Amino acid sequence: MTPAASEPSSPRPNLFHVALVLPWIALVVNAFATINDNSYLWHIRAGELQMNSADVMTSDVFSFTVTGEPWRTQSWLVELGYAWLEGVTGLAFTAPMVLVFSLLAFASIGAIAYRHSGGTVGAAIVLLLSAVILPRFIVPRPVLFSYFLFPLVILAWERAGTRWATPFLFWIWASVHGGFVIGLLYIGLRVLQQRDWSGLRVAVVSGAACLTTAHGLGVVEMLVEFAQAREYLAFIMEWQTPNLLEPTLLPMVLVALLAVYGASRGHIRTRDLWLLGPFLILALSSQRSVGMAWVGLIPITSRALGPIRLRWVRGMSRPVVVAFIVVVLVLPLAFTEPAVIDDEVFPVEAADDLADVNTFHDDGTGGYLIWAMGPEFPVYIDDRVELYDERIEEFFNVRTRQEDWREVFARDGIEQALLSVEEPLVDELAEEGWVVRHQDEYFTVLMTP
Fold first, then answer.
1. Closest by alpha carbon to 103, among 332, 323, 334, 340?
2. How crowded is residue 247: how many other Cβ atoms within 10 Å of its Cβ?
3. Cα separation of 366 and 42, whole Å?
4. For 99-138, how does the pLDDT look when each residue is reduced to its tens digit (9 = 90+)?
5. Pick from 140-149, 188-197, 411-420: least confident
6. For residues 392 and 381, is the Cβ–Cβ distance under 8 A?
7. CA nearest to 38, candidates 226, 236, 196
């Protein structure tokens, strides 16, 4: 892509220069939110086991339902980091980690937007939109690093002098999160879009680099297993296909409108459909894909905006701008507290009263129990859909009373249930004589009579 022409530089900073730092507020608020990501928690414990064994995981050790089944953890490299940091700081590292990597991601996004829009106005608009769209996707789990690495791949690819770094970035990416596939899709589409056959060699080497991680060709096996579990992903909210009228897809509607606007100004060309079409389709595939699709479309979105000249925007006093920026950077941090486990989402109190028997619980609780109690307390289920397959569907059918829990409990030897107090199954178990072992504001533990 040819960068858009630069807008005239202003001798004094203006409103849009100030706007460049406003996303910091959203990043701080997001980073210091309570910890409610169950996937993040089990990744920590997986890292500890791999650190102790000096080997990557190749089978399940966390459940009593599918224990010993072949399973690989894609995110082995970052899991080692999680485990080491937890050993040093407990969970106190969580918020700083999220803040640092989301800040680096936004810095890269700003660089992409500035290059393709040709000025500060376009970069500020893209960053502000990203601050609205991305924080809900930037969580402590390994996907955090996809939002850091994807913009870096885009930047590295755009200059011949930095393309040599692309295979190295993909090796890291394939070792921390499965989102690397989207990155490979991006550079493959860029090769087709630009007819850049010299870049094809770099794309092939980048793909090959993904096969040289600790799992080797097992990376492909993981991708195949995940693809085969697609029908079961529909039971997980974040993997459900978004409704066309849902607010989730508003960013993609905006991208489409900006593309039309950019085409009318000559900034978007027919060949840009190579990127625009597939990434819009990606956004429609699942709610979780919207964030990555947005990142992949930032170059086109920025070029669609183009160099914007706003005559009414006047320069501002430099001391005023500096003071404002300092306030924006410092004030949000003054109101932060160390991130803590969300006891509305996880059974912090109830876990202390669990008996050491097979326990029925939901997928989110499973991730917490793996972290809090380790493999010594095997779980019924968690969010590793590619591992549990049809058990995911069975689990949801039991919860929604479409399947008789008695048969499932008998088969799996379940003697205890850890449930949200609002679960309909609580009343059914009580009617069958199950005894309440623990009760708090959010969770209850029942045992067989």
1. 332
2. 9
3. 8
4. 999 999 999 999 999 999 988 888 999 999 999 999 999 9
5. 188-197
6. yes
7. 236
